[in-house]
Each structure stands twice: as structure tokens, then as C-alpha cells.
Amino acid sequence: MAALAWLLIPLVAVIGASLWGSWANRNRKIRSDGPELDGYARFREAMERSHSRT
User: In 3D, which of 46, 28, 30 has the Cα closest to residue 38?
Assistant: First the structure.
């Protein structure tokens, strides 16, 4: 009986990993990088302005 318990541990781990993998790889809404790139451009402009004052 103890051997069966030790065999069930990897089985449960494989099932859990496959469920997590399918959840992590699910289809999501495709989003463009527009907002992130706009924020980065504003950050760069602000850093350039702060360095030009010194």
C-alpha cells in the first residue's frame, strides 16, 4: 500500500502540471503594445528633460 502511495505522488504532480500548463497557455485577448510603448516614450522624454536641466 505504501508503494502505491509513492506512485500516486508523481501522478498527481503530472496531472497538476498539465492543468497548470494548459491554463497558462490559454488563449488570451491579443493586445497591442501601444499603451506600453506610449508610456515608455513619455518616460524617456521625462528623463531627457530632467538630464538637460542639470
Answer: 46
DSSP secondary structure string for all residues of 31-44: --SHHHHHHHHHHH
Q: What are the angstrom distances between the C-alpha of 43 and each of 13, 26, 33, 35?
A: 44, 32, 15, 12
Question: What pTM value is reported for the model?
Answer: 0.47
* Of residues 4, 3, 27, 23, the one with CA closest to residue 15: 23
pLDDT in tens, 15-26: 999 999 999 888
